[in-house]
Amino acid sequence: MSPHNSRLTLTDLARLYRSKEKIVMLTCYDASFAAIMDAAGVEMLLVGDSLGNVVQGEDSTLPVTLEQMIYHTAAVKRGSSRAMIVSDMPFGTSQSGPEDAFRNAARLMSAGAQMVKLEGGEEMAETVEFLVRRGIPVCGHIGLTPQSVHQLGGFRVQGKDEVGAEKLSADAKSLAEAGACMIVLEAMPGALSTRITSEISVPTIGIGAGGDVSGQVLVVYDMLDISSGKKPRFVKNFMFGADSVQAAVAAYVREVKAGAFPAAEHTY
Ligand code: KIV
Question: What is the rounded distance in angstroms from the CA atom of residue 206 to the CA atom of residue 201?
């Protein structure tokens, strides 16, 4: 079997979801980390535009370009052979209408992505449907959406009041109805992510959204404690007590699979 054929696919994702086995995802930006994560059993590698923060030193994800995402996606593909690769559509490349989004997503797919992720709710449903109908699996991303940091007034927990919670619930439903095959829920109360997860029939991947979701993702530099600045409450330092990066990543895999991470202290 060629390395490409041994990668996890949407069928594997559906199997994990049906069996209620937690799905393990980490961000990944290069071939070396991709190899470590692959060996440790991380199922999904997210080539996140958070690379703008942790690799490029920017104060937001807004400057990240499509060319840079293509470069990092190709590197992650070269370094891994098993995990499924999801690539972020950077700021301005998905919001520009379905046809433009298709052209941009197609370039990420050609570089090695098996799925693209785009930020936004109901307003992105038409674009999600357009991509999915043309063969591009799409992951939604709602809650704290870093590309909208200026509109959100900073990096804040979302959906804390009833209006906000109803909006996020409606966003998740409309993305799922449009054909999104997975939705990232970022920085929201655990009770809301539990509700959203029960309302839709595609996997939810939480980051700062509690444990009652289908899987977890963290920014790898955060969980290895090598990013600078104050860490959000939902981050756990997996290097603590580990003697190597490989051991830290393996501990993350174990704790997500066992439902031990995130704990109450990581949940809003
Ligand atoms: O870019 C990224 O790392 C992300 C995660 C925070 C989900 O979108």
Answer: 15
Cβ(127)–Cβ(94) below 8 Å: yes
Roughly how many angstroms between the first and final C-alpha of the chain, as a whole number?
44
**Residue 216 to residue 180: CA distance in whole angstroms:** 17
Which atom of ligand 1 sits closest to the CA of residue 219?
Answer: 3
* Residue 139 in tokens: 């992951």
What pLDDT, in 10s, does the model give residues 24-56?
999 999 999 999 999 999 999 999 999 999 999
CA angle at 122 for the pair 107 and 11, rounded to the nearest 5°: 55
Distance separating alpha carbons of residues 77 and 55, to the nearest angstrom: 18
* 110 Cβ contact list (under 8 Å, min separation 6): none
Q: Which two tokens stand for residue 182?
A: 């997975």
Q: How far is the CA of 99 from the centre of ligand 1 (A)?
A: 24
Catalytic positions are 186
Give dist(CA 239, CA 222) in Å, integer.
Answer: 10
Query: Whose Cα sits closest to atom 1 in ligand 1?
Result: 48
pLDDT digit string (tens) for 151-205? Answer: 999 999 999 999 999 999 999 999 999 999 999 999 999 999 999 999 999 999 9
Does the CB atom of residue 184 touch ligand 1 within 6 A?
Answer: yes
pTM for the model: 0.97
